[in-house]
Each structure stands twice: as structure tokens, then as C-alpha cells.
Amino acid sequence: MRPPGSKPLFICHAKQLLTMAGLPAPRRGEGLRHLGLIADGAVLIDGAKIRAVGGTAELAGEARRLKAREMDCRGRVVMPGFVDSHTHLVFAGNRLDDFERRIEGRSYEEIAGAGGGIQSSARRLANASVPSLIRQASRFLDQFAQHGTTTLEVKTGYGLSAAGELKMLEVIRLLRKAAPLELVPTLLAAHALPPGYTQKRHEYLRLVVTRLIPVAARKKLAEFVDAFCDRGAFSVAECRRVLKAGQRSGLTPRIHAEQLRRTGAARLAIELGAASADHLDKLSARDLRALARSSVVATLLPGANFHLGLERYPPARRLIDEGAAVALATDFNPGTSPTVNMQFILALACSAMRMTPAEAVTAATLNAAWALRRADRLGSLEPGKQADLAIMEVDDYREIPYYFAVNHCVMTVKHGRVIYRR
Ligand SMILES: [Zn+2]
Fold first, then answer.
1. How far is the CA of 357 from the centre of ligand 1 (A)?
2. Cβ 357 vs Cβ 113: under 8 Å
3. How many angstroms separate the alpha carbon of residue 155 from the centre of ligand 1?
4. What pLDDT, in 10s, does the model give residues 279-308?
5. Which of 63, 315, 390, 399 has the fewest CB atoms within 10 Å around its CB?
């Protein structure tokens, strides 16, 4: 529905319009290269939704008849807004000290062992007020919008206690009400074991299963349930327990898998029919083939590899060639990937993981929408879908990853409304 008094919007003369139009399925193999590109393209928006998509000449008559407000995008690329399907948006302070210690040669796990890492974020979160957490997250949300992101997933996971996790869920609930962007909430209570629980892991997991999951599901504070299945975090059996409890309560599972060590987490994702398995750095060849044959979206987070200074990146090329539905996300978080910029993630995907620019764009829009189970209304520009767009000051989409580390986005449209303009 169009708000009273507002006119339809006619975005026209795009040098390249990337529609991503096609069959309603995640893109795999060759399919990742099909952008549904229209030269001199146009999108006619009515209210929050897309009414028509096509060539400018083809749609001009209808736009005139509707007295649509015209927005000339000559010399620009118009594409679906980025869907960032993996973020840890809500945290207190930063991890600048960890950053410096790592530069001096300590590993991520050494820093975590010495009281840094997730535990230090948890201590800061415990001392932070809800308004201060909202203020910091809102500043980042403005930056996400400025870089062309229109939807992002947001995880809990720095609570490490019932009170802490409930506080994070409350912050996310308030942000969802106020933010112009769409936030998708995920309960990641099984992120790390709270201090003092080494000998009583079961107690914390029981709290997650019997208290946090039911509350998050009943009050609709989360849609997804996630777990960090890795060395130094939780085992496959523990994650199975958490994710299955989530499923019983109506939450869809997703999982942090095979980042530091091959654990079998990707197999667990397949077993449970998870929406996505994320990271996948240490995937075995057999896991890789199994994942490629499954419905689980393989979400790659190269920002973490970059920020941690790792030589190796997730096996994007092999995943795509085997037929996996590959998505890209920022993994925005204070410890391992403090970037809001999906355009930079595209650059990493191309330069460090040998994805083509077209594959990277598909992975960051349509396939990411599948990873969040929202592809019925997000991730492509097609009639009836939500009008979520990013307008880039380039005349070839390949310039987005090519001229890297620059913000090319000049306008972001969410629900048919301009939420950012440079
Ligand atoms: Zn993560």
C-alpha cells in the first residue's frame, strides 16, 4: 500500500539495471552469473513494492499515466539492496586492544584464552545500558544503509547469561521497531561458554534450551537459532541439542561451521535442514560435495579472513563449481570482521576467493535472501517484490569490486522510500 499523498516512483535510465530475475530458487553453478541485466533499465515503484521492471522506454507510458515521480539514474547501476545474512551488530565498545595484540603476533585463540575475544565483549555488554547499546548499533545501521544494505541479520551471543541474552533480544526488538532497515533476529546463546562453566557445560546448555529458546520463540524475539560449533566453543552434539530445541520451538537453525577446525558442523546443518552454514574455511572435500547437493546455503565471510590476516579463504570456487548455493555476508562483529561494507566483501570475494563480480553480486543479494528465508520478497527486482534498491555511482557493476574500498552507493531505497542519499 502506498502511504496517502505519496507518488509512485519511476527510477529510470539506469545504465545497468541488475534485476536478478529468474526461477524462484537459490542460484547455483552457472546460475550465479545471471544478473538479469537490462541496459537503460527502469523500475516503477508503487508504495513499498515494485510494480514493473523493464526498459525505460517500455515503462515510460505507465509511469506517466500514474504521474510517478521520476528519478533519472543515467550513468549509474541500479541493483537490489544488499542482504547481509550474518552480523553481530549489537555489542558494547570495541576490541581495539585485541586488534593490536593480534598485529603483534598473538592468535585469535590465544587472545580469547587471555580474557580477550568474546568474553571481553560479554563483560562490556553486561555493563552497558540498553540505550547506549541502541545508540551504538543505530550509528552502525546508518553506515550499513549508506553502503547499500537494506536487510541484515542480527545475532545475540555476547550475553553469555540469561539476563545478558534477554537484554540483547530486547535491544534488537527496539532496533527493529525504529530502524529503517529490516533486521532479522537470531538467538546465538550458544556462542561461547560463560566464564566459570567449564566443568558444568550442561548447566549453561540447559539454560539455553529450557529458558532462552522458549522465551525468544514465544515472544517472537528471534526467528533463527544459531550455534558456534568449533574448537573452543561447542561440539556437534551440543549444537545438535541446541538447534533441535530451537526447531521444536519454531526457530529455524543456522550454524557457525568449520571456521577454525573441521568438526562436522556442515553435516549437522544438512541433517537439520538448516537455512545456512556459515564460514566453511575447513570444509573437507566430502563435506563440500554433500553441502553442494543440499538445500543449505553456504555463506562465506571473507571479511573475517581479511581482518585476521589469514592466508587462506573459504573454498568459494570449489563450492560454486560443485553446485552449492553460495552467499556472502560481512560477519560484522568487533573481534574478527568490523566492516559494514558489503561492497568491500564483494572485492574480497573476487580478489581473494576468485568469484566473478556477477557471482559475488548474486551471492550478496538473492542467495543471501534465500539464506534468510526471505527470497519471496527480497533479493531481486521483480514485480510484486519489496522495493529495496541500491544505486551505485558506476556505469558497470564490475567497478563495484574493482575500485575497492570506496563507497560507490549514492542512494538506498527501502520499502520504496529513500533512506539514504549522497
Ligand atoms: Zn559470526
1. 24
2. no
3. 8
4. 999 999 999 999 999 999 999 999 999 999
5. 399
CA of 206 to the centre of ligand 1 (A): 22
d(CA 203, CA 199): 9
Beta strands in 194-350 (DSSP E): 224-229, 252-253, 255-257, 276-279, 297-300, 326-328
Q: What is the Å distance from ligand 1's center to 66 Cα?
A: 45
Domains of the chain: 9-81+380-421 (2.30.40.10), 83-371 (3.20.20.140)
- The Cα–Cα gap between 79 and 59 comes to 17
382 CA → ligand 1 middle, Å? 31
What DSSP character marks residue 208?
I
The residue type at 287: D
User: How far apart are the CA of 248 and the centre of ligand 1, in A?
Assistant: 23
pLDDT of residue 346: 98
Which of 55, 86, 77 is CA-nearest to residue 148? Answer: 77
pLDDT top residue among 42 and 1 = 42
Mapped onto helix, strand or coil, the DSSP state of residue 407 is coil
Q: Which of 277, 183, 185 is nearest to 227 (CA)?
A: 277
Q: Across-strand partners of 390? A: 79, 412
Ligand 1 centroid distance, CA of 226 (Å)? 9
